[in-house]
Amino acid sequence: MIGWWKTWKALEAKGIMGINRRNADYVLKYNKRSLYPIVDDKIITKERAIAAGIHVPEMYGIISTEKEIEKLDDIIGGRSDFVIKPAQGAGGDGILVIADRFEERFRTISGRIISHEEIEHQISSILTGLYSLGGHRDRALIEYRVTPDQIFKSISYEGVPDIRVIVLMGYPVMAMLRLPTRQSGGKANLHQGAIGVGVDLATGLTLRGTWLNNIISKHPDTTNAVDGVQLPNWDGFMKLAAECYELCGLGYIGVDMVLDQDRGPLILELNARPGLNIQIANDCGLTHRTTAVEQRLAELAAQGRHESPEERVKFAQALFGHV
């Protein structure tokens, strides 16, 4: 009992946020339920981002009913690569990434050869709600397949690395690079075996990594170091993340972004209930940072003003940078 108490006090002193505190003090406090559909449905998120002039992977088409599966050929046209996602999916489940064509069939990112009928079956499963939050009927989104920037070639296995930034009331508070592995099947989802690497908010320099809840310094597949990597266009990523507060209206979100080798930073999706493993990757608790933002908001409210996305980024980088 004494040992447990000491551990808990040590975590509290470090500012580690637990799931109960996240839900009670941030998700419930800052996220209106009426706004959840904006982030829980990837199609709605994408449409609002496009309207706001925020860059996202190009949307090729939407399939909403079994009958509309007939439109698949028209949607993909002569493209050799594309991505199919459940609009309301979570954790990367149900996503099908096509990397190339092979005669009359298709090759997935993992190298598996599948038929046109298998793709149709996957879309049908998406429509039934197999991968959706709550099991409700869903829509299938067909979109541009991101080509990762070459900087990730040595520290990622297949798939597309992404950057998760936790944002409180428009202020970035913590960032993490998520790297696919062989175990994760090329997906950047930590619970499937991807690596989480902390990122310094001020500079965009990667810190240490966490894999399956263990601290690591090298990628298990490429054996290259995951720390000390300078992410390009970091200020652009930070500004994108800050702008997502105005985009969705939710006060506590996880912003997932990617770096395409041709199109630069793109918003992938938003999450109203971002996970907490980001604290392990950064060796730092969220609570101290979120408290600092709340104090900043109180000061601004007393002055009767608010800050722009650029000002919010500047504040966060000055206060939360590791270096």
From TrEMBL:
Location of the ATP-grasp domain: 46-302
A single GO molecular function term of this UniProt record: ribosomal S6-glutamic acid ligase activity
GO biological process: SOS response
Gene Ontology annotations for the cellular component aspect, listed alphabetically: cytoplasm
Regions crossing the membrane: none
Pfam families in the cross-refs: ATPgrasp_ST
Tagged with keyword Signal: no
InterPro entries assigned to the protein according to its UniProt record, in alphabetical order: ATP-grasp, ATP_grasp_subdomain_1, RimK-rel_E_lig, RimK-rel_E_lig_ATP-grasp
Keyword ATP-binding attached: yes
UniProt keyword terms in alphabetical order: ATP-binding, Ligase, Manganese, Nucleotide-binding
Xref: NCBIfam families: rimK_rel_E_lig
PANTHER family: BETA-CITRYLGLUTAMATE SYNTHASE B-RELATED, RIBOSOMAL PROTEIN S6 MODIFICATION PROTEIN
Protein's UniProt name: Alpha-L-glutamate ligase-related protein
Protein's organism: Pseudomonas abietaniphila
